[in-house]
Amino acid sequence: MPAKYDLKKAIGRIMYKKAAYPKNEKFQNKTYVTGINRVIDYIELNLDEDLRLEELARIANYSKYYFHRIFKAVTGESLHRYIRRLRIEKAAAELFVNPDKKITNVAYNYGFGSSSSFGRIFKRYFLMSPGAWQRNANKEINNENDQENNFNYLTFKPVNFIKRITLPPKKIKLNDIDINIKDISDINVAYLRHTGPDIYDSDPLKKLYTRLCNWAEAYPDQITEKNAIVIYHDHFGITNDSRLRTSICMKIPSDIRVTGETGKMIIPGGKYAVGYYNLPPDENLDVTQVIYRNWLPASGYCVDKKRLLFSKFQNYLNPGYDKTSQGEIYIPIRPL
Fold first, then answer.
1. Is residue 325 domain-shared with residue 185, that is, in the same domain?
2. Residue 12 falls within a domain, yes or no?
3. DSSP 3-state assignment of 110?
4. Dihedral angle at the C-alpha atoms of 111, 117, 122, 124, nearest 10 degrees?
5. Is the full-model pTM beyond 0.85?
6. Range of the domain at 302
7. How far is the C-alpha of 278 from the C-alpha of 234, rounded, in Å?
């Protein structure tokens, strides 16, 4: 007798298979990537807006018909799929760190027309309702097969989505972090972007930063601050590992023009919770998790989704930097 067809598992295979959506190598050259990165940066900060094809094509400096083709070739996703995925992932992250927040408000804040349509899409992605996601957000979840399956998306078990996000930090405590509230100005940066599952591995980012430093040598009088700024665009455990985006940045004057693979963006200023710590740089995401869990709920603030989470590192390329080093994590916040 044939096995019963499981529609949910089939959807899971489509949405989270490791191969994801292949990129077209023909379109991975510097010119194409630069224009698409400008659009991606705009989308990320305007997910609650009506993101029209015509406007996004103008930002990329392509016709709307050609832009649609180039976007899919560079990213491996259609524009519609990309925007929908980013909205549902960012909404899932907000529900996770704010388990008491109204689902309807989160749905509207991320551009969904109704809570019912949001619920349908959410369940298709995560195989559970937004309400179930919230209820499980702060539970201690144990699974005897955790070590064996390594929280692989292909297990199709909703519990693993929650478990991946609730991985215990590496013995980091809130007392290990000095947290201050700071108001900062806009920061103009040049950046190179890395996409892939190895965000905990500093080697790919250091290679990118070496290339960025080589690029900056053309502006010795204008670019004098060489601290590394690392932007984490996605949430580990929610975004498919193959889609995790990290930008390695350097502060630059606003009048410097960039070309080729080097992008340029503004890190929006405003109020940030700044965590100072002395730990290996590959533990900065664990530091963020500790701040989210143990400091943010009682702080009187919530995360401001219109701005970016980033870290600063000094002497990033110095020998021995992988050992205990001073880092700063900047979490955008606003009053509740």
1. yes
2. no
3. coil
4. -130
5. no
6. 175-335
7. 24
